[in-house]
Amino acid sequence: MGAVWVYSEIYAGRPAPVALELISKAAELGEATAILLGRDAAGAASVAGEYGAARAIVDARADYDEHLAPAAVPTLAALVRERQPALLLFATTYDSRDVASRLATRLDRGVVTNATGIEADGDGFRILTPWGANTIAVCELTGPGTRIVLVRPKAFTAVNSGGACAVEQFAGPLDAATTAIRVVETVEETTQGPLLSDSKIVVAGGRGLGNADNFGLVEELADALGGAVGASRAVVDAGWRPYGEQIGQTGVTVKPDVYIACGISGAIQHLAGMKGAKTIIAINKDPEAPIFRSADLGIVGDALTVLPQLIAEVRRG
Amino acid sequence: MRILVCVKQVPDPNTVVYQIDPGTKRLVRDGVTNVLDPGAEVALEAALQLAERDGESTVTVVAMGPEDAEDAIRRALAMGAHDGALITDDALAGSDALGTAKALAAAIGQIGFDIIFCATESTDGYSGMVPGMVAELLGIPHLSFIRSLEVRDGVLTGQRVIALGYQTVQCPLPLLVAIASGSHEARYPALKGIMAAKRKKVEEYTLADLDLDPDDAGEAGARERVLELLPVEERQAGVIVEDNGDGAARIAELLRQRGVL
Ligand SMILES: Cc1cc2nc3c(=O)[nH]c(=O)nc-3n(C[C@H](O)[C@H](O)[C@H](O)COP(=O)(O)OP(=O)(O)OC[C@H]3O[C@@H](n4cnc5c(N)ncnc54)[C@H](O)[C@@H]3O)c2cc1C
Ligand SMILES: Nc1ncnc2c1ncn2[C@@H]1O[C@H](COP(=O)(O)O)[C@@H](O)[C@H]1O
Asked: Model ipTM?
């Protein structure tokens, strides 16, 4: 198998957690190369090596940080055209989707999105993607050239094998269609994001809590358990909670030891983000709520009654 | 301003049970009610609000789909869009994201625009690929996951959602914006709007009108092939109990067993 590249978003000076998952997977499939663009690229490269990258291609100019992610498109297009890796992996994040969609168009390549598994198969790859609630489609990309696949976070495990990688500097081109956008300011509304995705305990609330004030019970329980707060999309759409707390297909994917769902129906788009939890506990008024089909323990009851009792119980220890 | 909105018709998310035909390996669409994608309604709402603030804009909705996708366009017209364009051709059936984007971009190029709206992702496919692809084909910038926006002197200023909050971004027109799902409350068409929609113009485009290479479109152009379908390993349901005042205690007991308490 040839080279497997990973477009690695950089977060806090390191490849983002999902990038490390993809790098470890790439190392299983072939010779893993991390593509790292932006100010902190050189430092991030050594971490990529620890997680299985044999090479890192690094362009440490700040232009990539000063513009939105699509600034990476011309650089990636130049690299792929020149070197034709067998496979190029992206994470299913909004930034990476913006890059992958433009790149695939520029290279006139197909893409598979939302992949949860990849297996080498002769010269090609078998790519697994969920289809609805109970089917996994196994697909392949046909035609010549590099396969572009977007992978869901937490589909693979990041493994620190302590290696080191060869670092190659590359100065990519930039173009107007992807750098015309100016970022005026960045505003943080929550500090939960990264904490949530890696927390061992997640307490999540849904529309069943009734209003933003009642959601405070979810925060209290999370606080008492030392866990993170999550939310369903209905709650985020209603403006009760920030997007960074949304769990599911279009939000954060979590794989905690314990997931407590309060007033969440368990729509398949929500399950997509949490069904990997080791233990799922659900509190819901409706005995028919789909969440109960995935729960290890389901309490049919009013979350507004059960939560205060549970918070008291937990605080007693 | 000339505002275009890409809208998709999708199986009604409130009733559909997604089923795959094991033969064709495509989504079973028979007996399924189709609707204007709720995500596209939100994008259209954002576009209509921009047009209303501006007072001198027109909003044109563009859809690619089977003949009956005209219903989705009519719904958009009833909400307040001025006219519509439907790209429909048997040869376009089975298009992948890039094939869809090529058809949309070709029609959009003919219609002309100052700004294009999309939803960030469609409710049925949720690839989130089409907006960036259309923008790339047209050679314009795109902004994804926008929750609010303003256009002044030919420059768009918007809030783009990110994991930790939002970023304020600015870009001169022409450009494409993909709107975040819950960011606007889509209006419900009034009876007057529904009546007016019947008389509004919907232009049809075929593959030939768009000058597209048949090899780029539809099944023939799709580069993704489904090899097989596998059942998902279902999680086993555990114990489900009615809360008789002991619900909290039962949860605490399980948390103790798991070593959390
Ligand atoms: C393309 C797409 C992507 C999506 N992505 C996501 C995603 O990433 N994440 C996500 O969460 N959703 C996502 N959704 C939305 C998803 O389909 C559901 O609409 C959403 O998850 C519902 O949120 P909810 O469970 O909070 O609300 P509801 O479905 O309204 O459920 C509320 C639940 O609370 C229960 N309840 C009511 N009162 C009480 C009470 N007092 N005590 C206990 N229980 C009570 C009710 O019985 C009900 O089951 C997506 C949808 C689409 C179409
Ligand atoms: N067939 C289509 N017709 C019109 N617009 C589309 C079509 N497919 C996708 N789009 C647009 O692209 C957005 C994202 O779709 P997707 O890339 O399929 O997730 C949709 O919400 C629409 O705005």
From this structure: 0.94
